[in-house]
Specification:
The structure holds 2 protein chains of 2 kinds.
Chain A (H helix, E strand, L loop, with lengths): L1 E3 H7 E2 L4 H10 L3 E6 L1 H4 L4 E10 L7 E6 L4 E6 L9 E6 L3 E2 L4 E2 L3 E3 L2 E3 L1 E3 L27 H4 L6 E5 L10 H10 L4 E2 L16 E5 L10 E8 L8 H9 L7 H13 L4 E4 L7 E6 L5 E3 L5 E3 L5 E5 L2 E5 L3 E2 L12 E7 L2 H11 L4 H8 L5 H4 L1 H12 L2 E8 L9 E3 L2 H7 L5 H10 L3 E6 L2 E5 L10 H12 L22 H15 L3 E2 L5 E2 L1 H6 L19 E2 L4 H13 L5 E9 L9 E9 L16 H14 L8 E3 L6 E11 L2 E9 L1 H6 L6 E7 L24 E10 L4 H11 L4 E10 L8 E10 L8 H19 L2 E2 L2
Parallel strand pairs in A: 15-18, 29-32
Antiparallel strand pairs in A: 1-13, 2-14, 3-13, 4-5, 4-7, 5-6, 7-12, 8-9, 10-11, 16-24, 16-25, 17-24, 18-21, 19-20, 21-22, 22-23, 26-28, 27-28, 30-31, 32-33, 33-37, 34-35, 35-36, 36-37, 38-40, 38-41, 39-40
Helix pairs in contact in A: 1-5, 5-13, 6-7, 7-11, 8-9, 12-14, 13-14, 15-18, 20-21
Chain B lengths: L4 H14 L3 H12 L4 H7 L6 H40 L18 H15 L3 E2 L5 E3 H4 L10 H4 L5 E4 L5 E4 L5 H9 L4 E10 L10 E11 L4 H16 L6 E8 L2 E12 L6 E2 L4 E11 L1 H6 L8 E8 H9 L12 H7 L16
Parallel strand pairs in B: 1-5
Antiparallel strand pairs in B: 2-4, 3-4, 5-6, 6-11, 7-8, 8-9, 8-10, 10-11
Helix pairs in contact in B: 1-4, 2-4, 5-11
The chains are: A alpha+beta, B alpha+beta.
Chain lengths: 801, 359
């Protein structure tokens, strides 16, 4: 909402200066977004007259002008084609900053002639793009006077952001009323005018709506003005409109725009001579009916949209925009003025469906003063008659009016209950009354408050508390610390909520960078990674790249690596803990911890530590995460099954029975190619909801059993078929060696030369940990034999000779 | 006949001194003290002497034996030291070479910020609540007193999912406020929760991302008033930014789900081109807040005549950018390793009340 300082002063009688008002506005909830004071930037520019002009001795395109600045005569070199003796224009002296050329003028010698300033174009003063020549003012413009004041540009423009509840502040008067309530002056009464009316309006309203839709147009008023002259509007009006960014068009159009900004009251002016049949019919559109609006665009309507039209069809979308066919033009001599109230929801729905925004719609959908067809008619009429002449008809008014009056039960003590600010009930009453509320005091703490018709947003006691406290000032609200619930605060997160934090720290400490990537990606990639269901594709995505909810985080991490590779960083390890969307239900969302390593484990350096990443890195990451979540990783089973984006021979799942806790493996080479990644990559995915929380056994640990007897290591090498897994082998060894075997690890795997093609040699280190007595050779021998027998039985393996 | 002990001593000490290796030294030891060595032999021959002479000679021989033995030991230590020195000299390396590489992981500034926020609110008795990213229209709007066609809806730039069989279309939540509703439906007051999470709006430019993060807060009780709102949020802002005298300003505003509503600004100065959080001549808007609208309480089955409270919401990216001087929004989601190395956090120094919040 833009207005000017003088405009505000039309409604507010105040001694406060502009700085005070600018400080007060945000504290009333009216956020100041911009202030443009051209009187400051235009200060050095004055009115001057060229008294003589002669060709520059050394340049064909320049002239040397003698300029009367009102304060003396000086010489100025000027290149404008219209510079000539007798021209009155705008002069900038030496020392002036000229914004359009971003230059502070100095006494300059131009091709041998000294120039003591410049004559300016509109563009040079940043008033417009006009630069065909220097400004030409009226011959009687006062020489030496400031240009800004002369041109009416010295009225500062103020722009404020209006929250959706404050439709009343979409007019200057509403803003003035708030300031008056805050004690910054008094609201001037609207000019009391009574307009003589002559004869019935030749144009009549007809509301053609069934009973169920009567609420769409509760009140319409109109008046016909004959013999009007629709020339240019007065200069003061044009200056104000221009100052707030509205282009002056013609007197009648300018009046409607002016009143909209002045009172927040949109109007529409019809050319009565273009209305066929003497009736303006308010009705729902016919499906498929077309209408060309004032913005010269044609809209196809449907049967939910409220229109106004005549015998020739609809030519106005109620509350949104008038039509081209019946609008006023320079030739208009008979004007029919519409001041109406329409259903805000219908206006909003229609505007949204047609994607048609207008200043009128903006005000209608936020809720107008529903009595304004009566209240504003004469005020507007007087302005029309004053500016355009002519005669006004009687008012034609149809409708019962909107049902707006309501009583709100209010206790002034409620203000302190809700805000902790003690405000004297007399002050509370005064505030509400200045804002237009009517109060009936049933008893000291039992009031009935009736809001004014322009405050549709006020529906309950809390709203009244806000009005009172806002005007009193939020600074008066005391700072009260929240009462402590406990001396020692409890944790904010539960065991499940803590897990993402734990995983982030674990993976970062394992050298991985935490990424945060978008929850959506393109549909094709989503399908490639097991998702892409239509129910998870956005209807109104900002781009096709981001239109489908992600089924897994993996493609986002692959894309992240691709971007880094393009920047020359191909070796990376990244992870993300975040949501994935297997379905669109509230219960479907899952939290995934996903990690991905690419290329070398480290940069090349002299120790030669760096190597290519592989599936085992990913398995290690996954197992570390599971261990951190309290999973007994020793009891996990590994199956060689993983989604299709993994290398089929180098990937697997970590399971507890049928429950898959993690997938891990090398990324499929075809997927790497799709993401332009060279070199191997390996990743893992864990869905946290699939990992059961460990049973809460309290903080105490089971007693540590630390045997006093020395543990013994024995190494074995077995010949096995290649398809016997390490997990199977170790399980057989551990099972056979119970309870002595405390650990068994594979420390070498050999297949190749010297061994049959379908066989491998696996070396296992076994640790025997006695708990009751020092091991004897006999016991060691017996256990070793049991291990060898079990490997033979369960794995078909033989001890390597 | 005893050898001349003085001469023997002189000979051996001189040989020991000149020995240049452990082998030579051992040969000297054998020659002197070995079973058939000169001194051993002389001692064996003591029996040929009588009385005092035997005693005197025995003492002298013992003294000589000890002297030579300790001279050999001393020489041995010398030689070992020299050998070690030589080995150490040979083992010298260039210690300016790099150590073995260790990949450096970092925590994302958003996770860090969320932990800081959580730590502060935990101290004030809040717990964390959660809700889904894909929300129903009811939770995202209607229950929050934003009916269809309300102008406030237009300002949300909502992402929609396709309508289901009943014609109801889901949305990507435009704010974390639906968690207020879900929480009030689930638990009885008193309530003190924060609800951090992802939020979505169809806006994409230098200062807007289609996905961003918010943290909601909700406090409901029988006597929670706007003074508590003010106290709580001032305490939060000062702790989070680590500025004890940080000016915090509450400005009237509008949210359909709170009444009265307030925007919260913190003080800052822009002197010298840089932004500094603290007392200054300017203000930065950082969060929205207000007393929960009675209609919202009613929508959740809470009697507004018995309970009241406040709610607030803040953008996590925004407060992270302000606190840590991160100039641009878009790199938050770009996973640029250089950015993560620069703005990310060590995993070993989590924020906490007792060890500090990194301010």
């Amino acid at each position: 909402m833009k207005f000017t300082w003088s405009w505000l002063n039309d409604h507010l009688d105040t001694d406060a200066d502009m700085a005070t008002i600018l400080d007060a506005l945000p504290m009333l909830g009216l956020e100041v977004e911009d202030v443009v004071d051209k009187s400051e930037s235009l200060k050095p520019f004055t009115i001057a007259k060229i008294t003589a002009a002669s060709k520059h001795p050394n340049a064909d395109s320049l002239q040397v002008c003698t300029v009367d600045t009102g304060d003396g005569t000086i010489e100025v070199v000027c290149g404008a084609p219209n510079a000539r003796a007798g021209l009155v224009g705008v002069f900038a002296p030496v020392g002036a900053y000229v914004p359009g050329i971003d230059l502070t003028l100095t006494e300059a010698e131009i091709r041998g002639v000294t120039s003591n300033g410049m004559m300016c174009s509109e563009r040079e003063m940043m008033l417009s793009d006009e630069h065909d020549g220097i400004i030409e003012l009226d011959d009687d413009a006062p020489l030496g006077a400031g240009f800004a004041a002369y041109a009416g540009l010295d009225d500062p423009m103020i722009e404020i952001a209006i929250t959706p509840n404050r439709a009343d502040c979409l007019g200057v008067r509403g803003i003035a009323r708030d300031l008056a309530a805050a004690g910054l002056g008094t609201l001037k009464p609207l000019k009391d005018v009574s307009v003589p009316s002559e004869g019935e309006s030749p144009i009549k309203w007809k509301i053609d709506l069934d009973d169920a839709n009567q609420h769409l147009a509760p009140l319409v008023a109109g008046r016909c003005f004959s013999g009007v002259a629709n020339g240019a509007s007065p200069k003061w009006m044009q200056q104000r409109l221009e100052a707030v960014g509205q282009r002056p068009i013609s007197a009648l159009v300018d009046i409607t725009n002016y009143i909209m900004l002045d009172l927040g009251r949109p109007l529409h002016a019809y050319d009565a001579d273009k209305i066929n049949g003497g009736e303006l019919i308010i009705r729902l559109a016919k499906d498929g009916e077309e209408f060309t609006a004032l913005n010269e665009k044609t809209y196809t309507l449907d049967a939910t949209m409220l229109t106004i039209g005549d015998a020739d069809g609809a030519d106005d979308l109620a509350g949104i925009m008038g039509g081209e066919r019946t609008g006023v033009s320079d030739e208009t001599t008979t004007m029919f003025l519409e001041i109406a109230v329409f259903d805000p929801i219908n206006v909003a729905t229609t505007g949204r469906k047609l994607n048609l925004n207008s200043d009128a719609r903006y005000r209608f959908e936020r809720g107008l003063d529903v009595t304004s067809p009566d209240g504003a008619m004469d005020y507007v009429s007087a302005m029309v008659l004053e500016i355009c002449g002519g005669k006004a008809s009687e008012i034609h008014r149809v409708g019962q009016g909107a049902d707006w009056e309501r009583d709100i039960a209010f206790r002034p003590s409620r203000t302190a209950e809700l805000t902790a600010v003690e405000i004297d009930p007399a002050e509370q009453a005064k505030t509400l009354e200045i804002l237009g509320f009517t109060i009936t005091q049933n008893s000291a703490d039992d009031w009935t408050v009736a809001p004014p018709p322009w405050r549709g947003d006020i529906v309950g006691a809390a709203d009244l508390v806000e009005e009172i406290t806002r005007i009193h000032g939020f600074d008066a609200i005391p700072e009260v610390p929240l009462p402590r619930l406990a001396v020692v605060s409890a944790p904010a997160v539960d065991a499940a909520q803590k897990r993402p934090h734990t995983i982030r720290r674990l993976l970062a400490s394992r050298g991985m960078m935490e990424a945060v990537t978008f929850s959506f990606l393109d549909a094709k990639t989503a399908k490639r990674f097991g998702g892409g269901d239509a129910s998870l594709t956005l209807v109104n995505a900002i781009s096709a790249d981001l239109d489908t909810m992600r089924p897994t985080i993996m493609p986002n991490l692959l894309a992240a690596l691709m971007r880094n590779t393009a920047r020359g960083e191909s070796d990376a390890a990244v992870f993300e803990v975040g949501p994935i969307f297997p379905g669109d239900g509230a219960e479907d969302q899952r939290t995934s911890a996903t990690g991905l390593r690419h290329g070398m484990t480290a940069d090349r350096e002299w120790t030669g530590t760096a190597r290519l990443v592989d599936w085992a890195d990913a398995r290690g990451d996954a197992m570390a995460v599971l261990a951190a979540l309290g999973v007994n990783t020793a009891s996990l089973q590994t199956v060689a099954e993983a989604p299709e984006w993994y290398h089929p021979g180098q990937s697997g799942a970590l399971c507890q029975g049928r429950n898959v806790l993690a997938h891990f493996g090398a990324i499929h080479p075809a997927v790497l190619a799709e993401f332009d990644l060279k070199g191997p990559a390996a990743g893992f995915e864990i869905i946290l909801e699939n990992v059961n929380l460990p049973k809460n056994k309290g903080p105490a640990r089971p007693l540590a059993e630390l045997s006093p007897y020395q543990q013994v290591s024995r190494d074995f090498a077995f010949m096995l078929k290649r398809d016997v897994t390490a997990e199977k082998l170790l399980r057989a060894i551990k099972g056979a060696g119970k309870p002595l075997v405390s650990d068994a690890v594979v420390f070498d795997v050999y297949q190749g030369k010297g061994i049959a093609d379908d066989e491998k040699s696996v070396a296992v280190g076994v640790t025997l940990s006695p708990t009751k007595a020092t091991l004897t050779e006999d016991e060691i021998e017996k256990t070793s034999q049991a291990i060898i027998d079990a490997v033979a039985k369960h794995c078909g393996g033989t001890l390597r000779g | 006949m005893l050898p001349d002990l003085d001469q023997l001593k002189a000979t051996y000490l001189s040989q020991i001194a000149e020995a240049d290796g452990l082998d030579g030294l051992d040969a000297i030891r054998v020659d002197a003290l070995g079973k058939k060595g000169n001194i051993s032999t002389a001692m064996k021959n003591l029996g040929q002497l009588d009385g005092d002479a035997r005693r005197e000679a025995g003492q002298a021989l013992n003294a000589l034996k000890n002297e030579i033995a300790s001279a050999i030991e001393a020489k041995k230590d010398d030689l070992a030291r020299i050998a070690l020195d030589a080995r150490l000299a040979a083992e010298q390396v260039d210690v300016t070479l790099s150590p073995r590489p260790e990949a450096e992981g970092r925590i994302h500034p958003l996770s860090r910020t969320l932990e800081e926020v959580t730590a502060i609110f935990a101290e004030m008795g809040f717990t964390v609540a959660e809700g889904p990213d894909i929300e129903s229209d009811f939770y995202n709007f209607t229950a929050l007193n934003i009916p269809p066609e309300h102008p406030a809806r237009q300002e949300h730039d909502t992402f929609y999912l396709p309508p289901d069989e009943d014609g109801k279309r889901k949305v990507l939540r435009t704010h974390t406020s639906p968690v207020q509703i879900r929480t009030m439906e689930k638990i009885e007051p008193p309530i003190r929760i924060i609800a951090p999470g992802r939020t979505y709006r169809s806006d994409h430019d230098a200062t807007h991302s289609p996905m961003f993060h918010q943290c909601e807060g909700l406090v409901i009780g029988k006597d929670i008033h706007m003074g508590h709102l003010k106290g709580c949020l001032i305490d939060f802002c000062r702790a989070f930014f680590g500025v004890d005298d940080l000016p915090v300003r509450f400005r009237p505003s509008y949210f359909p789900f709170t009444e009265p509503s307030a925007e919260v600004d913190i003080g800052c100065s822009r002197e010298g081109g840089g932004l500094k959080i603290g007392a200054g001549d300017d203000w930065l808007e950082i969060l929205g807040s207000g007393m929960v609208n009675p209609k919202v309480l009613e929508n959740c089955g809470i009697d507004p005549n018995e309970y009241q409270g406040f709610a607030f919401g803040m953008g996590l990216e925004r407060i992270a950018m302000l606190k840590y001087g991160i100039p641009d929004l878009r790199p938050f989601y770009d996973s640029d390793l250089r950015w993560m190395r620069h703005y990310g956090f060590m995993p070993f120094d989590p924020p906490s009340i007792h060890l500090g919040l990194g301010a």
